[in-house]
Amino acid sequence: MTEQALKKETTSHPYIVINKDVCGGSPIIEGTRTRVIDIAIEYEVLGHSPDEIIRSHPHVSLYQIHDALSYYYENRDELDQKIKKDRGFITLLKVGFPSKMV
Question: Closest Cα partner for 22 from 10, 11, 35?
Answer without folding.
Answer: 35
